[in-house]
Design goal:
The structure holds two protein chains of two kinds. Chain A is of the alpha+beta class. Chain A contains three helices and five strands. Chain A has a single domain, classed as Histidine kinase-like ATPase, C-terminal domain (Heat Shock Protein 90, 2-Layer Sandwich). Chain A is 31% helix and 28% strand. In chain A, strands 1-2-3-5-4 form a five-stranded antiparallel beta sheet, with helices on one face. The longest helix of chain A has 22 residues, at 38-59. The relative contact order of chain A is 0.22. Chain B is an alpha/beta fold. Chain B is built from three helices and five strands; from the N terminus they run ββαββαβα. In chain B, 44% of the residues are buried. In chain B, strands 1, 2, 3, 4 and 5 form a five-stranded mixed beta sheet that branches. Chain B has helices spanning 30-43, 59-74, 86-94, and strands at 5-11, 17-25, 46-50, 54-57, 78-82. The mean pLDDT of chain B is 95.
Chain lengths: 145, 111
């Protein structure tokens, strides 16, 4: 999945819910500036919400940072996340409910990642060094049109 | 980022109670939405969530719908959805959640 990824600038935030709306707002402003139409921005927001809430909720036991970066290449908007929390690849499993299970037994936790995989052009996970330490590095590409 | 989120409860046709949400059910609004939905479902035999003025639904919103559906089923109540469009409709369909609800195109279809 070798997409072009021009170097954008990482923005660093506390991985906490009180920063959530600010991070979303910054990313959506960058998408707007890149010319992404409203309909695609809603899809972008689905991915943003899913990954960001995941990092804020689960990456760290006692708080930490999240890095967010956006860039544009070949008519694709690239949204990247990095954190220094426990190694975790959210793309590893399709956690969507099993249609054969009765309603009461379905596990709703995996809807989000399933939708991200469906709506985004490409997604990629790497565990690599970013900002001076090993990091969960998640990249999501969404068509600008 | 002041995103719109409004909820109302009104009496609909044929004994249905209409819970209308304007804007979005997402991570930020899901708890508030669940609280109102839970209250309405507990008090009424037939509840319909009017989504015609919603423009965004995330997995946090899907979890609200699933929790309310389970609650309604446990109590022998009806809980369904009306009027989703755009990405709200796509999210319901692509997640498979639409199969759990007898989704109405509009409130005119309540019987």
């Amino acid at each position: 999945m070798a997409q072009d990824k021009p170097e954008g600038t990482w923005k660093c935030y506390n991985a906490a819910m009180d920063r959530y709306e600010e991070i979303c707002s910054n990313v959506l402003e960058e998408a707007e500036a890149a010319g992404m139409p409203q309909k695609q921005q809603l899809r972008l927001e689905l991915g943003l919400e899913e990954i960001l809430v995941n990092i804020i909720s689960y990456a760290y036991d006692e708080g930490g940072k999240v890095w967010v970066r956006t860039s544009v290449a070949d008519n694709l908007f690239c949204l990247e996340f990095a954190d220094h929390g426990k190694p975790f690849d959210p793309l590893q499993k399709d956690l969507r409910h099993d249609d054969n299970l009765p309603l009461e037994e379905r596990e709703p936790g995996g809807f989000g990642i399933f939708l991200v995989k469906k709506y985004f052009h490409a997604v990629e996970y790497k565990y690599e060094e970013i900002a001076g330490a090993m990091a969960n590095h998640l990249s999501l590409w969404l068509s600008l049109q | 980022m002041a995103k719109e989120f409004l909820q109302t409860e009104t009496a609909g046709a044929n004994g249905w109670t209409v819970w209308a949400v304007t804007g979005r059910i997402d991570t930020v609004t899901s708890e508030e939405a669940y609280k109102m939905g839970e209250d309405i479902v507990r008090r009424n035999a037939k509840t319909v969530l009017d989504m015609s003025d919603m423009d965004y639904l995330s997995s946090a919103g899907l979890r609200v719908l699933l929790r309310l559906k389970k609650l309604a089923k446990k109590d022998g109540k009806e809980f369904t959805i009306s009027g989703p469009s755009g990405i709200v409709k796509s999210v319901l369909e692509d997640s498979g959640m639409d199969s759990l609800f007898d989704i109405r195109a509009s409130l005119d279809e309540l019987d």
